[in-house]
Amino acid sequence: MKKYMIPFILLLCIQCKNATTLSEEERNFATTELDRSKDNLLQSIKGLSSAQLYFKPDEVSWSIAECVEHLTLFSTELFEILEESLELPANPERRKDVKFSDKDLMIYVRDRSKKATTEEDFEPKNTDGNHTATLTTYLDNLEKHINYLKSTQDDLRNHYVNFGTVDAYQIFLYMAAHTNRHIEQIEEIKNTTNFPKN
């Protein structure tokens, strides 16, 4: 039995050596960006009335409440995206396919000069029933994401998400930048000439 255990232990050691856990700098960067985007969002919608939250600049544009719901849907889906990426074996060979550095990815995602349409899964549908419930779901999800990043030993750098390509760590940076992108959209709505006064 012992002769079979030695190769098994060696294999475990090799896997541990090859695994890449996040550095404290990476953890701090991602959690700080997520916290900052949350604070910016809360500041952007603070004190808005129901008329202001549900105002639409035109028939095809989203309201502020719909922007928040879209962000909430994405934050919920992130759990599944992450789970799917971690189900596959870690693959350091795919690092060459990652298109952006961490900071460049955030700049790219936030850039509203590049218009984009969202997938059907992320289209606002009044899922939670009201804006307050939606915002609560968003904040709960964000807290879970941040707690995960602070403690995970998962090899996020060598697992990948297939829209990009970005690695599993960068999906959290994508989320922060995506929130900031829609904060800019919210500010544009608030600056519309016929935006309700209260």
Automatic annotation (TrEMBL):
Q: Cross-referenced SUPFAM superfamilies, in alphabetical order?
A: DinB/YfiT-like putative metalloenzymes
Q: Mind listing the UniProt keywords for this protein, alphabetically?
A: Signal
InterPro entries in the cross-refs: DinB-like (IPR024775), DinB/YfiT-like (IPR034660)
- Record has Signal as a keyword: yes
Cleavable signal peptide: 1-19
Pfam families per the record?
DinB_2
Gene3D superfamilies xref list: dinb family like domain
The chain positions of domain DinB-like read: 33-186
Q: What is this protein called?
A: DinB family protein
Q: Which organism is it from?
A: Pseudotenacibaculum haliotis
